[in-house]
Amino acid sequence: MTPRRAALHTVWRRPAGRAGLIALALLALLALIGPLVLPDPTAQGDLLNGALLPPGPGHLLGTDQLSRDVLSRIVTGLRLSLIIGLASACLAVALGAAVGLIAGSRAGMVDTVLMRIVDALLAIPRLFVLLLVLAVWDRVPIPALVLLLALTGWYGTSRLVRAETVRLRGEDFVRAAEALGAGRLRIALHHLLPNVAAPILVAGTLGVGDVILLEAGLTYLGLGIRPPTPSLGGMVLDSRSVFVTAPWTSIFPGLVIVLTVLSVNLVGDALRDALDPRSA
Amino acid sequence: MNWLARRALQAVITALMALALLFFLIRSLPGDPLAVLSEDRPLTSEQVRDLQRRYQLDQPLGAQFTAFMGGAVRGDFGTSIQYGRPVRQLVLERLPRTLLLGATVLLINFTLGLWLGVQQALHRGRPLDRILTTLSLTGYATPSFWLGLMLVLVFAVRLHWLPAAGSQDPGLDGAGVLTVVLDRLRHLILPALTLAAVSIASSMRYQRAAMLEALRQPYVAAARARGLTEGQVTWGHAWRSALPSVLTLFGLWLPILVVGAVFVEQVFAWQGLGSLTAGAAAARDYPLLMGTAVLATAAVVTGSLVSDVLHALLDPRARAE
Lengths: 280, 321
Prior knowledge:
The complex is a heterodimer of chains A (280) and B (321). Chain A has 13 helices and no strands. By secondary structure, chain A is an all-alpha fold. Chain A has a single domain, classed as MetI-like (MetI-like fold, Orthogonal Bundle), CATH 1.10.3720.10. Chain B has 321 residues and is mainly α. In chain B, 78% of the residues lie in helices and 0% in strands. At the A-B interface, helix 5, helix 6, helix 11, helix 12 and helix 13 of A face helix 1, helix 2, helix 6, helix 7 and helix 11 of B.
């Protein structure tokens, strides 16, 4: 069994992990197929008679104040959230792994300097860094947002990977490779990296959930994804003026965020429990 | 003492490095900060001069750096663009409300959260443990700004039990002390509940793991064998030894609270530092935003220092590291 299949298998064996995987698959399916069959999420219908319709046959989850279909907007927003979450978390984990491997496999000055910088970066709450940048960067393009979320999300992974690398450095198989004349790069990529794959996978999975929440929060503060692009956080923001009379505009996008992040985290937790028996 | 001095020095260095990183962060952003700041809002020439002087924008990078670090260390961040008042004054004004909210949430998480974590450990793998795990994970996956709106919808709009926003009733001038205190408490309930619900998972999970570890130790079996009651074993022996590692959580808590407060205070119009930050970001009030960011950083560094010291006081092994 390949390592990837083994990881999937261990998650599947746990009830919580299985629930998370199934929910995540359904959400991904909805995000993929939904836009094909649902009305245009930006199309405004009859503003006089079509705005703030409660959930019903025509609009399963009702319409918002601009008479746009809430379900369509949720599905489009969900797709964007998943893409941003996945892309940022992958980038962040890659960056963290690279820094961790470098610091861990080169003891001494490089290690000390890199880890002191990571300490300092960890001291600044991620949200504040993002607020400072986004306050100046009006209408940030989505790829840049992905990059910003990745650039602020790798510190923890680099610490984890460094600790694992330092632990492995003294192991026989690494010293054997050294004795056989393998270069530093070869050892890092062929011998160390495969052995730190597990914590990287866990950190990456949990990172997806963090990014989705953070992106929704930034958008809710008016700094992330801007209208007219539909986004889950943006829908909650828009609903603030009408949620008392039309609660469906607010309830459903939020529920989808909860469900998405919960499923991702269930998978991540199941992975961690399977790969690190100490935490179970 | 030697250990404490070294740890404190390390905290100071981390804080200074974080400040330096913040400086390079702003300076590395593309474009002229003043141009961006005044783009859609006319700045008075006085404000422009103040900003120029504050960040020494006409000086070389080295001078700018010194000016920034000097200001940050002294707690001087210049004048807020939005309010036209010193940032320090605004921050100090808003601080008590945030401390009240944060302390309440900490109290909930460190009493209810720890108690629930212990119950989970005692019922490991059984339905109670599973249900509590699912609930806490759901809370952790919930955006605080949305949960706040939902609680307002139920408890303020529908049931009329609690106020929807603000931190006090403005019409209570001259009322008795008891009325005022009760009114403050009523305003505190929903924001505190929201922040606790989305953050309690951390303390529960940590306590559960620490307690499971402790319950495995031989002295717990020994305590049972000596015929102590389950309550004495649980709280007197297992929990006490699990406490130091749980207290380390205190350091992790500050960032969670600081960040959570930004959203929750904004939703509930709670006049604290969080809503001040959210407002500053929306209005692109850079001096104010920088002030709250530096304060948040200082809080994180202090929190981790305090938790390390607490840990060392309770567990001498930690000092040896």
